What does this fold into?
Amino acid sequence: MIKSLCVFCAARDGDSPEIVVTTRAFGALLAKRNISIVYGGGGLGLMGALADGCLDAGGRVVGVIPESMVTKELAHPRATEMHVVQSMAQRKTRMMELADAYCALPGGIGTLDELFEVLTAVQLKFLDAPIGLLNSGGFWDSQIAMLDMMVQRGFLFQTTRDRLLIETDGERLVDRLSECARDLRA
Ligand code: AMP
It folds into this structure.
């Protein structure tokens, strides 16, 4: 169903070894399910863990990185493909073009920016694709509460909120993204 999943996640490790392990396992799961990863191309932090997990399990990882960030430390040296673009704006556009579904794992403001860009594109009907949130260890709980508050206060349609598929289990999230892709195509 889904051939290519765009994954947004942290360029750092954060404070939880468990989240690093979960991220690596999510990469391996996508390899097992034959789903290519499109991501920011980084080799460090959760981005690196995701890519390593997928590559070590025989999967395919496509990075999209701005030229200014392509140094040995930042770009993943083993990525299957690396698209080098000129700006952060071009990166987001290219990542969106290369994938047929999107999801966010724990991350910082870069991850938030990317997640909300795709959710806004769905809201404005520029994009009609599944979007998921892997809520590892309840990381996204306060963000989810904020979205629900926006709905209650009339700033967000429930239908847009409901397009964000939230799961704590990676397998379940991939199943739901696939079901959503099938429903959107029907
Ligand atoms: P953050 O959540 O702030 O750590 O930012 C991570 C997100 O922003 C990723 O999904 C990337 O697409 C992008 N990004 C930020 N920093 C880097 C980096 N050093 N290398 C590659 N991508 C990055």
